[in-house]
Amino acid sequence: MQLSLWQRGRIRLARARRWEFWPAWLFYIPVVLWIVLLGLRHRHFTLFTAANPGMDDGGVVGERKSPLLLALRDALPEATPRLQRLPASLGAAERLEQARDFINGQFPVVLKPEIGQRGRGVLIARDAAQVERYLAASHEDLILQDFVPGKEFGIFVYRDPDAGDIRIYSVTAKELMHVHGDGERPLHRLIMEHPRAWLTAPMLFERHRSQLAQVVPAGEDFHLVDVGSHCRGAVFLDGHRLITQALGQRMAAIVESLPGFHFGRLDVIAPDRKALREARDIQVLEINGVTSEAAHVYHPGTPLLNGYRSFFRQWQLAFAIGHRNRQAGAATVSPWRLLRLFLSDLKRYEAAESASAGARQA
């Protein structure tokens, strides 16, 4: 099943009108210029790399996910799911044995690279065969994590560079798209007639290519997205109304349990929005550093200038926090090392995506 040239052109035109779908290289031109200006003001172009001294290279790129999650698990066991590291240094048989011991027949589980961004390489494995295929295809360090049902949110937090207290910068509610079957239309038509899904049809057609011609039964929901990443098809909604005193206090307690973490986004899951407001049953799935985004700006219809204002303020805070931490003795990363890290990260991208896609589609 292929999209026609007319359909592809229509999608490209619609995406061009919505800045949330612009390619990163285009959208980030003003942001990069702002970072350069901040570097000139502070006389240190990589000062932001000192914002999170507890993360590899400041949590800018190439940082491992597990150290802070394990620290949080030790301090607040209820605040993050169980996880198991599966290093690439282990033999294939030993990795599989450790994975089986951890899973103990309880599915689904989450498999993802130890180093990764934007949901790449993430697989929600629903049976043992998917786990085996993923492990066989991946040759990098991995994390195996308990799957937690509920609603996913991105909470961007920072330690105020002047007052020193923990504050919430933004909350993003993540909606995973689905289509509702009517017993008549095949999946490809449901996607193209969905008010949002058709904008990401090329990606969704590739992801679900073996099921596109199937008719979705009446009353049944077909989930198009299973990972809370915008570039993977999740819809991001501004959740500023979910910020409460209780949530602020809970997030402060969580951040205080993360050594050397001062600035970034925590991807969390809660039973629902009410539970998040009341700070009940919140579990941290992932901890992202300096280059994570306050993703509420991707709320459909957000004015472009509002998005830039938020990112400009975010980077201003990163430099201010980095400056304070550097005065306290934190190290910064050289521009040349950052460049090497970014280049290495690009090489990891394709391999991680191939492993998760192969495990899902086979």
Order the strands across the largest sheet as they lie in space: 9-6-5-10-11
Number of strands: 11
Gross morphology: globular
Q: What percentage of the residues does DSSP assign to strands (E)? A: 15-25%
Query: How many alpha or pi helices?
Result: 12
Helix content: 25-40%
- What's the order of the H and E elements? HHHHEHEEHEEEEHHEEHEHEHH
Low-confidence stretches: none
State Rg.
21 Å
- N- and C-termini, Cα separation: 18 Å
By secondary-structure content and strand pairing, the structural class works out as: alpha+beta
Q: Largest sheet, described in full?
A: 5 strands, antiparallel
Mean pLDDT: 93
Q: Explain this structure to me?
A:
The protein starts with a helix and ends with a helix. It has helices at residues 5-16, 24-27, 29-42, 66-75, 92-103, 128-137, 187-192, 201-207, 245-256, 273-277, 304-327, 335-361, and strands at 83-86, 109-113, 123-125, 142-146, 151-159, 166-175, 178-180, 221-223, 235-238, 263-270, 283-288. 35% of the residues are buried. The chain is built from 12 helices and 11 strands.
